[in-house]
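Sequence in, structure out. Go.
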Amino acid sequence: MKLMDIISKARMLAAAVAFGLIIAPVIAVAGSVKVAGIFTLPVEQQWISRIHIALSAAEKRGEIEYVYSENVSNTDYERVMREYAEQGVDLIVGEVFGLERAARKVAADYPETAYLMGSSFAPQAPNFSVFDNYIHEPAYLSGMAAGAVSESNVIGMVGGYAIPEVNRLMHAFMAGAREMNSDVTFLVNFLDSWYDPPKAKESAFAMIDAGADVMYAERFGVADAAVERGKKAIGNVIDTANDYPGTILASALWHMEATIDKAIGAVADGSYTADDYSQYSFMAHNGGSLAIDKSLVPANVVAAIAAKEAAIRDGSFVVTINDETPVSDN
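Output:
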């Protein structure tokens, strides 16, 4: 950071204190906002790609200067956070599900740096905000498609970890399926890994062998198993229908633009404080949407899903958020 930038920030902080602010918001910067992304997996990974795409779009518009580090291990994450903070980055974006305590300590040590982190816990004043992929609403809608199409009344579900951000999507999906098919039952398994396509594929094969004819593909590898066995699948976070033609009934999509743009704007105008940004993943903010293959889903089911989406958007129907670990039906 340039000396004049440091002096300017110091003067603004002194002014805030003089006016009696106990916890000052993160200070605005002149020109574009400097943003660093810190990711534990490659930016091509489905969840992280949503963040990277939104940040890249802001960079293309000239609103931010964007750099990122990918494949950062949990043991190295704190060091990378500190390095970016020392470099004078204004906003650090990432995910801290496996290292909450360390990440929050770094944020406390650098109060003038804004942090926007994927987390299952609350924000931390003055500068540590949280977000999560609250796409439970389109997950519910995708469940409606699955429940209506299933002929065996058995749906398989393969997830990464049994943490709130995964659990709530599964529960919403299950509720949507049950709305359309009260006889449907579920087989549930967690991989304890964010990226292990071979393991996910084997888990899906086992569920298909047990009677599942629709697979909920929370992780990569599940849809591949569905293709090989001639079954259908439901996508998550990104739309993979073109990669698996004739297989993906619907996908609950996550869009990070609303979350990222809100945070960037707050840093730019000096109003950034610790907050929960989860709401910006809701359909009302266009943070979530549904992709559906109308050639695979009956027209009456598509119409029912459209009506339910309208009810979600106007607030007349609220999808329940359930963070408890889902289990297989007996």
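Check: The chain has ten helices and eleven strands. Confidence is low (pLDDT under 50) at residues 1-30.
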